[in-house]
Amino acid sequence: MLTAIIVEDMSDALALLKKDIETRHPEIEIIATAQSVVEAAKVLRKNQPDILFLDIMLGDGTGFDVLEIFPELTSKIIFVTASDEYAIRAFKFAAIDYVLKPYDQNDLGLAIARAKEQLRPNGERLQILKDTISAPEQKPDKISLHTLDQIIIVSLDDIVRCASDSNNTIFHLRDKRKIFVTKTLKYFSEMLKAYDFVRIHQSHLVNLQYISAYIKTDGGYLMLKNGENVPVSVRKKAEIIDILDRMHR
C-alpha cells in the first residue's frame, strides 16, 4: 500500500478526488486531508505520505508555501490546478506533472503512475513553476527539458533553435550542446511562440534573437548568428519577411 495526503481547499473537489482514489486506486491509502496551508502543515508534521496531492491555490496561501515549510519533504507530488492556460504553461516549462480540475480519470491515473516512478521535483524546477505562475505575463527565464534519462534546465536565451526528429525534438544551444527531448516540435512551438520563437518550417523552430539574415535565394533560408543555415518553408516566407521587417524598424 502507498499512503497519500490530499491538500485541496474546495470541499467538493476534495471529496471527489478522495472518492476517485479510493474507488479506482485501492493500492493508495488516504491517511489525511487538508484544506489550507495551516491544516496541511499540521498533518504533514505527523505523517509524510508516499504521495502528496497538492492544490496550487489555497485559501490562506499556495501549495508552494506548504513545500517551503517542509523543505526536506520526500513525498512524490501530484499538483492540482484549475484549467488555466497560464498555469498549464507553467507546468510545461517546469516539466512537472499536474492534474486539472475537474479531474479526468485517465489523467489522474497517468499522474499516479508517473508519481510512483519519479522523484520529487528538485528546488530549481519548483522555482521555475512558482516564478512562471506568479508572473504569467513575463517571459520565463528557464525551461526544463525532459530527456530519456534526466531533466536538464536551460535558459530560454541560450536556445538557438529546435529541430524535429520524428516525434522528438533536438534543442541546439548557444554553447553547441544538443539536447534530445522526447516531445514533439509542435509541443514546443506552441509553448514558445509567445517568447520570440517562430516556426519557420515543419522541422524547424528558431529563436528570433539568433537570426542574422534572411537569404531569398536557394529556396529561402535563414542565416543564424552561430553560422548555421536553416531552410524556410514556402508558406512561411511572407511571415518571416514581415517579422524581420518589424524587428529592424
Please specify the SSE layout and strand pairing.
Blueprint: E1 2-7, H1 11-24, E2 28-34, H2 37-46, E3 51-55, E4 57-58, E5 61-62, H3 63-69, E6 76-82, H4 85-94, E7 98-101, H5 105-117, H6 123-134, E8 142-146, E9 151-155, E10 159-165, E11 168-173, E12 178-181, H7 185-192, E13 197-201, E14 204-207, E15 211-215, E16 221-224, E17 229-231, H8 237-247
Parallel strand pairs: 1-2, 1-3, 3-6, 6-7
Antiparallel strand pairs: 4-5, 8-9, 10-11, 10-14, 11-12, 13-14, 15-16, 16-17
Helix pairs in contact: 2-3, 4-6
Describe this structure in words.
- The protein has 249 residues and is of the alpha/beta class.
- It has 2 domains: 133 residues, Response regulator (Rossmann fold); 102 residues, Beta Barrel (OB fold (Dihydrolipoamide Acetyltransferase, E2P)), CATH 2.40.50.1020.
- 34% of the residues lie in helices and 33% in strands.
- The chain has 8 helices and 17 strands.
- Strands 2-1-3-6-7 form a 5-stranded parallel sheet, with helices on both faces.
- A hairpin with a 4-residue loop joins strand 8 and strand 9.
- Helix 2 packs parallel to helix 3 and helix 4 packs antiparallel against helix 6.
- The longest helix has 14 residues.
- It is elongated, with a radius of gyration of 21 Å.
- The N and C termini lie far apart (63 Å).
